[in-house]
Amino acid sequence: MSKTISADRLRSQGAAILVAAGSSPAEARQVAANLVMANLSGHDSHGVGMLPRYVDAVLEGGLSPNAEAKLLLDAGSVLSLDGQRGYGQVVGEQAMRLGMARAKEQGSCILSLAQAHHLGRIGHFAEMAVAEGLVSMHFVNVKSRPVVAPWGGADGRYGTNPCCIGVPLKDRPPFVLDFATSRVAQGKMRVAHNQGKTVEPGLLIDEQGQPTTDPGVVVVPQSGGLFGALMPFGEHKGFGLAVACELLGGALTGGGTWHQPTNSARAVINSMLTILINPDKLGTQAAFETEALAFIDWLKAGPVAPGHDAVLIAGEPERAARRQREVAGVEIDLGTWQELVDAGQKVGVRLEQ
């Protein structure tokens, strides 16, 4: 069972909860808009269903409303910032604006952002960059209860550690590749669990390290208070990329890596290493524009495989989902809706049914 809610209503109700949890109206609107954009993009795992966890994190003291990104180092084309456990949607944008300005001026920027609360959909930051004609690469780690098993391992040892690459395409929508290094995002398992669904084989192991199709093993404690784990995508290759994201996004930024026993804290701490490149300053702008389009056209000109409508590039499914959901509304399962209602009650907000 589910209910369909307009994007505008989700934004306003989400913002009301965030204000009651301590955010300024401007911050609340920014975070709520970012979450709803994830829903509109088809990524409900990063949408308003995260609000209950944010409220818990604020109440526990792991998330600091109205915090700003603090500049720690300015070395020209290298910037280092501390997110101070502020909303990642806010401090992430602040960091990106600084980095993009520097890349436009100097040709590139290596941007380090440590200790932000949950950054949300990393593709949002790539979309910011490509809108300014910049190429961007993002490596992110997750400091929270470890939910992904190493390739060859039998319990969770690290987070979903997303990787994202954005490439502008002249006079066309951009290429935006944004994915978790687990076979599926943790939030998608939360949604499936709330919907009472099982998932396809190969995504999960239970608390005993055995394969399972029950998403609840990574959402609620199992026997002995243990959790199961997600599997890495691409076997050893995806695992290797996840380790790279931990080393670059966590260790290199100074934000830290996960190497401690599991705890019950609700905060989700992200650190992100971003590389921004200005093709114009690189001196390859004309060739870049021509060759990028030629390659995309080449991909799309080939035959379409049975079961597919077209060859799609990264970013196209999200844009199609936005067009559809902005008109039709966002479908929220009743389990997630009840969690939102409960979160509102914790801070004194009664959501309209």
Short summary of the structure?
This protein has 353 residues and is α+β, with helices and mostly antiparallel strands. It contains eleven helices and twelve strands. The chain has three domains: 102 residues, Hypothetical Oxidoreductase Yiak, Chain: A, domain 1, CATH 1.10.1530; 170 residues, Ribosomal Protein S8, Chain: A, domain 1; 40 residues, Wheat Germ Agglutinin (Isolectin 2), domain 1, CATH 3.30.60.
Explained architecture:
The two termini are 15 Å apart. Helices cover 40% and strands 19% of the residues. The longest helix has 19 residues, at 88-106. The protein contains eleven helices and twelve strands. The chain has helices at 7-20, 25-40, 51-60, 88-106, 123-131, 186-194, 236-252, 279-282, 285-301, 316-328, 334-346; strands at residues 2-5, 70-74, 78-82, 108-117, 135-143, 163-169, 172-179, 204-205, 211-212, 229-230, 269-277, 330-333. α1 runs antiparallel to α2 and α3 (51-60) runs parallel beside α11 (334-346). It folds into three domains: 1-66 and 318-353, Hypothetical Oxidoreductase Yiak, Chain: A, domain 1 (Orthogonal Bundle), CATH 1.10.1530; 69-182 and 234-289, 2-Layer Sandwich (Ribosomal Protein S8, Chain: A, domain 1), CATH 3.30.1370.60; 192-231, Wheat Germ Agglutinin (Isolectin 2), domain 1. It has a seven-stranded mixed β-sheet with strand order 2-3-4-11-5-6-7, with helices on both faces. It is α+β, with helices and mostly antiparallel strands. β6 (163-169) and β7 form a beta hairpin. The mean pLDDT is 96.
